[in-house]
Write a structure and sequence with these properties.
Protein name: SpoIIE family protein phosphatase
Pfam families: PAS_9 (PF13426), SpoIIE (PF07228)
Low-confidence stretches: none
Helix content: 25-40%
Structural class: alpha+beta
Mean pLDDT: 83
Strand content: 25-35%
Number of strands: 17
Keywords: Hydrolase
Oligomer: single chain
Shape: elongated
Distance between the termini: 87 Å
């Protein structure tokens, strides 16, 4: 800024600013304060600024209680993040003033009150911390439920679960039923986060209620009842689920599919089969959907492999998907040399080597081998 004399200045606009403004000359004498500054600190004009970087002889001088944020004679704009005065927080900008000869004349300081903004930021950080802690707790609960698959005689159960976020929309369960039957399913909820994880809990407890409470033991009927229960929530969300019932006495596996496009694979040393079956996802849009039923005869050594599309939709640097075919071929490649957890680890490793960048979706794998 340039000026010949301070009296030539026009401070009408400055006077109406909400920010606190003051001007001091090269001796540190405060020669002007605007209306906002006068309300905050009275009788400042005629006092001297107290500079934090120099020793000042205080004799015969009256100093302002509001210290300066830049040394007298500074040549460049100076800002400070925070200056606390009288219980208020200010962001201060100090700008030098030069006369027509480009000689240092003094300084103008603008104090912006950021007390409420600081409080809002602190409240936001506190709220975010609470949400993070809640999500970590919910994630631990969800992972704990996934990890506690029931031991079932005659079956070797293994799983692999990798969440792209703290909370996942992928879920699976194995439920031992009376009469030597076993219910097994894998589900994939639209989206991630808290809402998706809540739906996985709904699926878990609803399926168990249907098979234990209502004694429903047919895949199609379970999915139809599950769809009706979900429609009561009136949520604009959906999920896919592949559910089957294995009868250990007859070795028959009956299954139905509600829109789950990651088709489970039935394999042994000599075969690889996809349990292909169509069906609509479970959603408020498809409340009256019917579901087809498939059947497969299982033998000693047969393995059912369930998975979610986070695996097959993994992309490389060319944005090319890993795909069903690559996964199918990987299973065929490793099935004779690896079993159980080792096989799942190898399949995930194969996908990880294909992936470029971060994992974008949840990955869930569940294997059920007949002993």
């Amino acid at each position: 800024m340039y000026m010949d004399e301070f009296t030539h200045w026009n401070f009408e606009l400055v006077d109406f600013m909400e920010d606190l403004v003051r001007v001091f000359d090269k001796t540190g004498l405060i020669v002007y304060t605007n209306s906002s500054m006068k309300k905050f600190l009275k009788d400042e004009e005629g006092k001297f600024c107290l500079f934090s970087d120099e020793n000042v002889d205080k004799k015969d001088r009256v100093f302002s209680s509001l210290k300066c944020v830049a040394p007298i004679g500074h040549k460049e704009d100076v800002t400070t993040e925070l200056l606390s005065v009288g219980g208020r927080d200010f962001f201060v900008k100090s700008s030098p003033i030069f006369d027509s000869n480009k000689e240092y004349w003094g300084c103008i300081e603008v104090f912006r009150d950021i007390t409420e903004a600081n409080k809002l930021q602190k409240d936001l950080i506190k709220h975010q911390k609470m949400i993070k802690n809640d999500m970590l707790t919910a994630s631990d609960i969800q992972k704990g439920l996934l990890s506690k698959l029931n031991h079932v005689d005659g079956l070797d159960l293994e799983y692999k679960y990798i969440s792209s976020d703290q909370l996942s929309g992928d879920f699976f369960d194995v439920i031992e039923l009376p009469n030597d039957k076993v219910c097994v399913y894998i589900a994939d909820v639209m989206g991630h986060g808290i809402s998706a994880s809540m739906i996985t809990m709904f699926i878990k407890f609803s399926v168990r209620m249907l098979v234990y409470g209502r004694k429903i033991e047919h895949p199609r009927e379970i999915l139809m009842a599950l769809s009706k229960e979900f429609s009561k929530l009136n949520l604009e969300m959906y999920f896919t689920i592949f559910l089957g019932i294995y009868n250990k006495n007859t070795c028959e596996f009956e299954y139905s599919n509600a829109g789950h496009n990651s088709i489970p694979i039935l394999f042994n040393k000599n075969k690889n089969l996809r349990l292909e079956l169509s069906g609509l996802p479970i959603s408020w849009l498809f409340q009256d959907s019917g579901y087809s039923v498939g059947k497969a005869k299982l033998c000693h050594g047969d393995c059912l492999l369930f998975y979610t599309d986070g695996l097959t939709e993994t992309k490389n640097e060319n944005r090319e998907e890993y795909g069903e075919e690559r996964f199918f071929n990987a299973v065929d490649k490793y099935k004779n040399s690896l079993l159980g957890r080792e096989l799942l680890d190898k399949l995930v490793e194969d996908v990880s080597e294909f992936r470029y960048g971060v994992q974008e979706d949840d990955i869930a794998l569940l294997s059920m081998r007949i002993l």
